[in-house]
DNA sequence: TGCCATCGTCGATGCGCTTCGACTCGCACA
DNA sequence: TGTGCGAGTCGAAGCGCATCGACGATGGCA
């Protein structure tokens, strides 16, 4: 392995000088700098991560805790992860993947063995059991999602409450008087997953505010579940004209089932989906959506983390405003 | 931070003794062991990863290179990743995420800064430009996928050639005489992505062997692309009765479109899908599938990596036999 | 001409751990 | 009684780097 000493010898300077060239923490004459940089390139030198971590107490690694559940949407999770790695690399950090399944102990382990400099946590629940422990850790922590009591932790997420309201507002503006929310699977609600409950609240409040009849149902993502869910909804209110779908995985089945029932979108029933924009055009009818800005959230999470690492200590909660894009799946109800 | 010295002091032994208790590399009296273990627990000691890496030249970190493309199936990628982290943790390793976008240089960097002990690489292309560099690296490398010339690298994957053949055999056995393959998006073929070309080869050879008329089309995953693809296929051969779909993302659109055309599955047309088993039941018709054993492949990749790390130096190529599960989407063609 | 500040560089130290050689027992065996 | 040996423990060295204090050279100013 090529070490800083090899570089120093090749360049005819002291190892510490090489170190300063790399870090830029002291001024270096242009001549020396050139000499050293050339040696680095020629030898293909990369500082030993362990040694660097030991000497500087910094690893340049960010840990990301992801859920492995299959009952929430994998594609969205993947988008977050992708955005996070990309953003992390842009800040010269690497990304360590942890799973929610390992529980709070894993967070302890990572923190106290100095594997990573900071923690980013996805799939946050309203009363997340990891929160107290995360606070106790003295690492920078950024939550993707918002628990009931973030108490000192930074959070970033789509403003799901506003998103729920936006969906209702759109349908109400079009003239719909009876709408329904098809949500994530029951297990997601049972866990108190933060985005699900926040969306539901926004939906309910807005519906009440607008005087729109509104019901909601969780829905697992098998075809049968979707079908059963629609059965119930239509039986409960045959005058239903608008659907808000906060569950990307059921969209294909849902649209297919609606057509099967002879319900045309949007003529007979309007559909607003909450999903990444990339999914909007994959269906026979281009969907009106409120976008889940996974990419932006991921990038912001990294950015907030870097700020914390840079000494910016006050925690912040960033809620990204929802963006509704009207496409072909919503229209005024037939009178 | 609590160090090995703190533990040693608390237990009244030398630091090296603590180290030996942890590593088990020398015998320790039961009494001492108990004493030390108790101190470790009481103090919440975790060895400093950097220091450990520096002293032992082992990081206990595995790097996984994932593709970030959206033109291949994210859900499957996610399954791999999930399986890999889980398996890695079971071997007491952490998982570092790298992206294919960073190119070969990133692999160099990770290798020569000793960030990880080994590399696992997904989305391998037939003539993957990373292969020569990976060989030059003296880290254990395991490819998920098989390039044309693996030359000394370990590989693991589903045997896609056999999978292609299995799909044909199933349809041929049922009596189909004209079938078509709907493959991944054109870009995937253009890159020479290993699994796509291998599957196609198996499909073609088997069709020829069985005397079945067979054509194939790549297909992007927008609804229009699916529709256009079906138009072409049906125009080219109105007697088409069997479809092999090696592109999970188009399944919903495809099924929906078939119904739209008045083609019932399986009465009018049979469909065999290549996808993770979990997706088989999410459609109005439960799909006959050849499973993509993402979980097993991921686990095997980790296992092979650990073997290499354990000193087992001979590279191996493991191809997992395809498993076809018959469900409701295939039947004998109407005569 | 002499003094001080600044710039650029060097050497030494220590981060927390693993590992190697050495040392001390206690025991079996001759 | 002496010798050999293995089990159990210790101390020291060193892994590759960042960082701090120190030092020589240079230039500005009086």
Automatic annotation (TrEMBL), chains A, B:
Keyword Transcription annotated: yes
HTH lacI-type domain span: 2-56
InterPro entries: HTH_LacI, LacI/GalR-like_sensor, Lambda_DNA-bd_dom_sf, Peripla_BP_I
Alphabetical UniProt keywords: DNA-binding, Transcription, Transcription regulation
Record GO terms (molecular function): DNA binding
Domain of life: Bacteria
Classification via SMART domains: HTH_LACI
Residue stretches in coiled coil: none
Gene3D superfamilies recorded: 3.40.50.2300, lambda repressor-like DNA-binding domains
CDD domains assigned: HTH_LacI (cd01392)
SUPFAM superfamilies linked to this entry: lambda repressor-like DNA-binding domains (SSF47413), Periplasmic binding protein-like I (SSF53822)
PANTHER family tied to this protein: LACI-RELATED TRANSCRIPTIONAL REPRESSOR (PTHR30146), LACTOSE OPERON REPRESSOR (PTHR30146:SF153)
Protein name per its UniProtKB record: LacI family DNA-binding transcriptional regulator
């Amino acid at each position: 392995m090529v070490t800083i000493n090899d570089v120093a010898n090749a360049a005819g300077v002291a190892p510490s000088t090489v170190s300063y060239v790399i870090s830029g923490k002291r001024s270096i004459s242009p001549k020396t700098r050139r000499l050293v940089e050339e040696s680095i390139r020629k030898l293909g030198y990369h500082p030993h991560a362990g040694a660097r971590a030991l000497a500087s107490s910094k690893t340049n690694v960010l840990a990301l805790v992801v859920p492995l559940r299959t009952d929430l949407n994998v594609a969205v999770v993947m988008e977050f992860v992708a955005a996070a790695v990309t953003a992390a690399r842009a800040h010269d950090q690497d990304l360590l993947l942890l799973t929610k399944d390992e529980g709070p102990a894993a967070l302890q382990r990572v923190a106290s063995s100095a594997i990573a400099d900071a923690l980013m946590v996805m799939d946050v629940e309203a009363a997340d059991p990891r929160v107290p422990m995360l606070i106790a850790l003295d690492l920078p922590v950024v939550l993707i999602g918002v628990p009931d009591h973030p108490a000192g932790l930074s959070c970033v997420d789509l403003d799901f409450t506003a998103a729920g309201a936006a969906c209702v507002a759109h349908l109400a503006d079009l003239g719909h008087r009876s709408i329904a929310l098809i949500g994530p699977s029951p297990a997601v609600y049972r866990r108190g997953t933060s985005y699900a409950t926040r969306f539901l609240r926004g939906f309910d409040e807005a519906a009440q505010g607008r005087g729109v009849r509104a019901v909601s149902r969780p829905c697992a993502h098998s075809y049968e579940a979707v079908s059963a869910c629609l059965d119930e909804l239509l039986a409960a209110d045959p005058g239903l004209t608008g659907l808000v779908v906060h569950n990307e995985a059921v969209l294909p089945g849902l649209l297919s089932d609606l057509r099967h029932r002879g319900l045309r979108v949007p003529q007979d029933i309007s559909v607003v989906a909450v999903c990444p924009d990339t999914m909007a055009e994959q269906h026979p009818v281009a969907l009106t959506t409120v976008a889940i800005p996974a990419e932006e959230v991921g990038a912001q999470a990294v950015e907030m983390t870097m700020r914390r690492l840079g000494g910016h200590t006050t925690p912040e909660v960033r809620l990204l405003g929802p963006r509704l894009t009207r496409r072909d799946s919503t229209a005024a109800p037939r009178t």
